[in-house]
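Hey, why these numbers?
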Amino acid sequence: MQKDVLNKLYTKLVGVIPKNVLVKKNKSATWKYGYNEKYDIVVISKTGEIGDIIKMNGINIALPLQPKKITKRHSATKHQYWERHEYPKSLKRISTIFQWNDQPNTFKNQWIDYIEQEFDYREYGYWFYNNGIPTYMTGSHYMYLQWTKIDVGYPDFREANRLFFIYWEACRADLRSFGLCYLKIRRSGFSFMGSSECVNTGTLAKDSRVGILSKTGSDAKKMFTDKVVPIGSNLPFFFKPIQDGMDKPKTELAFRVPASKITKKNMYTVEEEELDGLDTTIDWKNTDDNSYDGEKLLLLVHDESGKWLKPNNILNNWRVTKTCLRLGSKVIGKCMMGSTSNALSKGGDNFKSLYEDSDSSKRNANGQTKSGLYNLFIPMEWNMEGFIDRYGMPVLETPSTPILGIDNEMIRIGAIEYWENEVESLKSDPDALNEYYRQFPRSESHAFRDESKQSLFNLTKIYQQIDYNDSLIIQHHVTQGGFYWKNGIKDSEVMFKPDKRGRFLVGWTPSKQLQNKYYIRNGKKYPGNEHIGSFGCDSYDISGVVGGGGSNGALHGMTKFNMDDAPSNEFFLEYVARPQTAEIFFEEVLMACVFYGMPILCENNKPRLLYHFKNRGYRGYSLNRPDKVYNKLSKTERELGGIPNSSEDVKQSHAAAIESYIEKYVGLDFEGTFRDSEDMGTMYFTKTLEDWAKFDISNRTRFDATISSGLAIMANQKHLYLPTKKESKISINFARYTNTGTLSKILQ
């Protein structure tokens, strides 16, 4: 089933808050900015009133209530779009608050409403009609569009950026969040948006510090000097604090005396406290694991964080800089992090880990993600230059008639078709294709594509399958859950329970009559469904390692060709995790084998799992190595089963088994050799596919899922590895005779 939410970045929620509660609290304007635990919403409204509630990337965001007065560029719907307001010439002549104070009151009276309104837009956000639709943008987005001068003049309004700033505001409002980890496409405008937010934050706060990091120190410096400093210089006088030092500083932008918030009450006088100063600085640091260590930051803008090259490590840096944004348990600052990703072998793997650790659906007991950040991905087609109409909306599909773009050029092809054409032209060059995917991703897996040079397997097929999986509602194909003993009685029956916190992903469960099936032979239990399939496992022996971490335990279940009510030649189970103790892992593996009634093939260099099976009476479930006859097995191999991981023959056979499976059952089979050429493979476990794509046979220990899945294939094909009988080197040919007649004659 294809995703019905594909190309939909948010959904509008209904009924989250009882209507009477909503009306009452709106009337009294008592909705507080921040996370509301009772209704599980993040309120980004600063008026005390909320309107629509949208769900975006797992976060329920309560937007401000639509006001009665909304800016309308034109009465005709088709002429309603964002248009920057020209800065009045009379005010352009004024460069500082002191010059304003010197102006006559008649002049001030003329412009005070305009200035107050700009402060309100900055604080509360801005509403305008866009193609007939009342549209809200945050104060930060308004400051970016209205007052941020970039390399091409002033930015265009884009729906993708509007949603980015709404999500960023939710990260700012939510005290559980340390900020945003944004996986972006090339030329999405993130560097300028981040620079604008530096200036916006730095010119509002007192006694604070704003920091900038990038993939290199020179990149951070360039962002500071070429973006942040000019943006600060071009602010109107009423937003611009007095700057200490040079007009064009190289290392630090220091605001010592602030611009007051000019209102009708204070427009005529200058309060003494207004000259106390902000004492706020914006600066940059060299790229290093310990950048900003020991500092206290209100905002950290992290540009190109997916392109940190060794010895620099974005993961190590974030562990340090995260402490700059907190005081004890209190989050006092936010990080705006954004990047495209390098190839995984060139720093992209660390950014990928950080991005995955920022999943808002996976929180610890304190309500925070593993990284503390919230991740966000906006697909290429939403923000691709040349495919944005005059209303800032993406032209996803090819239009029947040309559409006027925001750059006044006609758009004749949709972003998706254009992208697909590019992909088609690069299919003969895997590395160029993967680079294009990384620069202009339509899915998260595109963004983290690796270089193909190191791959042992057919990457084209693997990525075909990953792309297909991305287009599915994967929950309709695999179920997350866990196994448990019925009534808590070990060695009875095993049950499966769907659970979002479960460590198993399951694509098929056997019918009731096949569950927990076994037979007894010579007083020992053996699995009853070996004819249907097998498990492969990559185990570990030690619960924890020094410094935490350690490799995961992995388990894969796979069917073989069968005539039962089961799929054929299909992976049906994936488990890649490291529970708190090794014993938990052993028991979970055992329960899976018992539930499915299938044997397991493990590497025997880490024997604790095999001892667990034996000691519990399940030695019959552990397969012997298939490449040796029983009387040639070592004493340990006879006792426990399993297969060594040190043998070069085993390593080669293992890799060949996966390679063969990929060719037959993964991606598309254009030649129609193994199945219909239009039929996609049925390998729905993307984590395993990604592990296959990166697999390095010379360094197998890092690839738990590959080891486990390969052993499952080998277990199902054990007949292929049976040792061949050696022929005798001595060949004796006996003569044969015919004994008909009176004399025996030799046969020729």
Summary: The chain is about 30% helix and 15% strand. The chain has a mean pLDDT of 88.
